[in-house]
Recover the amino acids of this structure.
């Protein structure tokens, strides 16, 4: 094998690796974009974790009612999910248009009624009396200088979220619940 053919073979492999990385980044960015375009918009009440320490820089730390699931919401047979497991949480809309957790499953339910959506999350830990779940919606970046105003309204905020049919979610805005 000549030196030229070895270099050509290596550059071909390097090209495949670079193309795979670019493709991965495009799919990641595209799925986030697609959730915003095709996702269903829902509203969720936020629950401040610690109102005194809610702001860190230019983002707001948010937690939700669906972040701490009661163990009886787990509808699968066997043990509750453990740290790192993917869960699908069914949210039901109330009369005010806000969604609340109703059930959690280890696999995405085949169908839900029109006033329900399914959100994909990952178990952070199981405390026995609650299952802590993260959805990737716990941090919301705000324009510089607007964080203090949001901190004052922490207990009165509703988060507007778009949920894609495959369960991916993204925050599209914050609003006052009153």
């Amino acid at each position: 094998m000549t030196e030229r053919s070895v270099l050509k073979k290596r550059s071909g492999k390097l090209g495949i690796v670079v193309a795979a990385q670019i493709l991965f980044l495009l799919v990641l960015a595209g799925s986030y974009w697609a959730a915003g375009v095709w996702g269903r918009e829902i509203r969720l009440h936020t629950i401040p974790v610690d109102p005194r320490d809610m702001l860190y820089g230019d983002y707001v730390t948010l937690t939700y009612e669906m972040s701490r699931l009661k163990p009886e919401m787990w509808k699968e047979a066997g043990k509750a999910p453990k740290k790192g497991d993917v869960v699908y949480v069914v949210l039901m809309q109330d009369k005010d248009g806000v969604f609340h957790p109703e059930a959690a499953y280890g696999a995405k339910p085949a169908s839900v009624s029109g006033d329900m959506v399914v959100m994909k999350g990952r178990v952070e830990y199981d405390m026995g009396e609650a299952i802590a779940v993260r959805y990737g919606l716990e941090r919301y970046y705000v324009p510089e200088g607007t964080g203090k105003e949001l901190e004052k309204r922490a207990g009165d905020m509703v988060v507007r979220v778009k949920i894609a049919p495959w369960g991916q979610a993204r925050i599209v805005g914050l609003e006052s619940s009153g």
In short: Helices lie at 3-38, 147-152.
